[in-house]
């Protein structure tokens, strides 16, 4: 009987540990959304398919290029990008640092290439996952649309949450649903 009690206690402990990890991840995400600073990144999505990760929109950002005359940077190096908003309200990288800044909003980025006086960076939120049934329509909406795509990203203490992707005044999910309905109605 004692062995059965130990198994039940061990099972309960393992179950609690397994529940703690995803709950902690969700709470951290919600904390960033509640307490983080909103940055709007101009972007250009394309729609790939990854059988292991599902449907998502790969995002390419204007902020992925950083002008510098400093030649000490190396490809594949991870650095801290300090963020600020430009005069129009869009996010930009103001400086790059090798150590985390003590103040201000920052994200960890990776240097993917070095051109003359310009670094190419990989931002930590380059994928926006979308319901599979809307992914193709989302891509078509973007490429047929002349409106600007903007990623809404919340940042606090180096933690990042990509909250939504906007096409003009609609989320990409709303734009894709409208597009699919318009296609259906035109048949």
What does this structure look like?
Helix 2 (132-144) crosses helix 3 (172-185). Strand 2 and strand 3 form a beta hairpin. This protein folds into two domains: 1-35; 36-185, no CATH class. It has helices spanning 2-35, 132-144, 172-185; strands at 37-46, 49-50, 54-61, 65-67, 78-85, 91-97, 106-115, 118-122, 127-129, 149-156, 159-167, 170-171. Strands 1, 2, 3, 9, 10, 11 and 12 form a seven-stranded antiparallel β-sheet that branches. It is built from three helices and twelve strands. The mean pLDDT is 86. With 187 residues, it is an alpha+beta fold. The radius of gyration is 21 Å and the shape is flat.
Descriptors:
187 residues; alpha+beta; 2 domains; 7-stranded antiparallel beta sheet; 5-stranded antiparallel beta sheet; 3 helices; 33% helix
């Amino acid at each position: 009987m004692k062995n059965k009690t130990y198994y039940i206690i061990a099972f309960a402990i393992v179950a609690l540990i397994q529940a703690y990890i995803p709950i902690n991840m969700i709470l951290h995400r919600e904390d960033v959304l509640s307490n983080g600073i909103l940055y709007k990144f101009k972007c250009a999505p394309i729609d790939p398919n990854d059988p292991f990760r599902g449907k998502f929109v790969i995002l390419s950002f204007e902020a992925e290029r950083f002008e510098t005359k400093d030649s000490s940077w190396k490809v594949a190096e991870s650095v801290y990008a300090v963020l600020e908003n430009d005069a129009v309200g869009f996010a930009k990288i103001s400086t790059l640092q090798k150590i985390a800044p003590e103040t201000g909003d920052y994200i960890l980025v990776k240097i993917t290439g070095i051109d003359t006086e310009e670094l190419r960076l990989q931002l930590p939120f380059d994928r926006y996952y979308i319901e599979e049934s809307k992914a193709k329509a989302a891509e078509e909406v973007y490429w047929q649309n002349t409106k600007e795509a903007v990623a809404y990203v919340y940042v606090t203490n180096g933690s990042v949450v990509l909250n939504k992707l906007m096409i003009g005044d609609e989320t990409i999910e709303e734009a894709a649903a409208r597009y699919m309905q318009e296609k259906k109605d035109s048949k």
